[in-house]
Amino acid sequence: MNAPDSPRRRALLGVAAAGATLAGCARPAQAPATGAASAGRLRIAVASCCDQTKPQPIWDAVRAEAPEHMVFAGDNVYASKQPFDIQELRAAYALQARVDSFRQLRERIPHSAIWDDHDYGLNDGGADFVHRQASKDAFLEFWGVPAADERRSREGLHHAQLLQQGARRVQLIVLDTRWWRSALKPTDQRGARGKERYLPDADPAKTMLGAAQWAWLEQRLREPADGHVVVSSIQLLAEGHGFERWGNLPLERERFFRSVRASGARGVVLVSGDRHIGGLYYHPGADAGYPLWEMTSSGVTHPWATADEPGPNRVGPLVRERHYGLVEFDFAAAELTLSLRGEANQVLHEHTVPLAVLQPA
Predict the structure, then answer these.
(1) What pTM value is reported for the model?
(2) Reading across the β-sheet that carries 168-174, which strands appear in turn?
(3) What region does 54 belong to: left with phi over 0, alpha with psi -120 to 50, or beta?
(4) How does residue 361 score in pLDDT terms, banded at 50, 70 and 90?
(5) Are 261 and 358 in contact (CB under 8 A)?
(6) Buried b or exposed e, range 81-115, using 16+ CB within 10 angstroms
(7) Which of 23, 126, 192, 262 is the most buried (most CB within 10 A)?
């Protein structure tokens, strides 16, 4: 944990004093605005880590909030037992489809989805997973991806969608961090704090996204929009742990920052899953052109109740109970709010940033 008077804490409090608000305590959620009052707001819910065999009350909370869009950010079912059996993955999807609250959410709220390792089919799996095409076929079938969708004719599951609210547009950019990802460097001290499973590897031949997806991402960031929500199933900004994260391939993380800067994109914010915890993370942003924020929302059914990690660039506490995340662009107030919400739709942790901060100088 950072000392109360550390330079990083003073810097973050300076951001808050400039117009952002911090909330580490639960408070009742506000009722969703309706009609003309909601014309200046666009809300995107985010959730990950859903075991199809466990209770899922969080979907009722999402439906009550009624966001404009929903992102299923990976590990949407669990079927990664080895040796891999495609029938087990299909059975997991079939069981999840019978969850009534999940079914109702999919029917009522427009949504997007990406996989992570447990619905990819191999824990911490990457490009070396030999059954990835079978897993992809099952994914496309379960999520009802149309026959004409480009994901059916090219490798990977990355995709983008333009969300519009009145005259405002937010580009949703969903990355595939599994299909092309190179092998990670194993730790030399498994379970040790800060290097639990993997170590940073600066091998320039290794990739997180692959050449084709990198080119695609750079094009998407250049498309005009009032905001860009980048979905990465694994954490991109988070530091201080040795589980899966972009920091395991630091040159790829640096390339992401450079791509944001080169694109001139406004309002870039990151969302992720995978960790069985919730948290908000901050990157000062000199290499990206402006500060970046990431919301990790990971804990639909089985969050990590005893999680404890330093989080050197985490703002506020870990959320260690069942939750979902909400990204809210309030264009009327010129603010972006990231919040993690519990089963009663209460706010567990929240941060608000002026949109003016999230653009190139």
Answers:
(1) 0.91
(2) 159-165, 168-174, 227-231, 268-272, 292-296, 279-283
(3) beta
(4) confident
(5) no
(6) eeebeeeebbebbeebeebebbeebbeebebbbbb
(7) 126
Residue with tokens 């995107």: 44
Quick: pLDDT tens for 98-156.
999 999 999 999 999 999 999 999 999 999 999 999 999 999 999 999 999 999 999 99
Instruction: Say which residue the tokens 């959320």 belong to.
Output: 319
Give dist(CA 281, CA 217) in Å, integer. Answer: 22
What whole-number distance in Å separates Cα of residue 12 and Cα of residue 14? Answer: 5
What is the edge-to-edge ordering of all strands in the sheet holding 69-72? 21-23, 347-354, 335-341, 324-330, 41-47, 69-72, 111-113
> What whole-number distance in Å separates Cα of residue 93 and Cα of residue 84?
15
Alpha-carbon distance of 258 to 186, in angstroms, equals 27
The answer to whether 23 and 351 have CB atoms below 8 angstroms apart is yes
Q: Is the pLDDT of residue 38 over 80?
A: no
Question: Residue 170 forms beta bridges with which residues?
Answer: 163, 227
φ/ψ region of 205 (left if φ > 0, alpha if ψ in -120 to 50, else beta) reads alpha
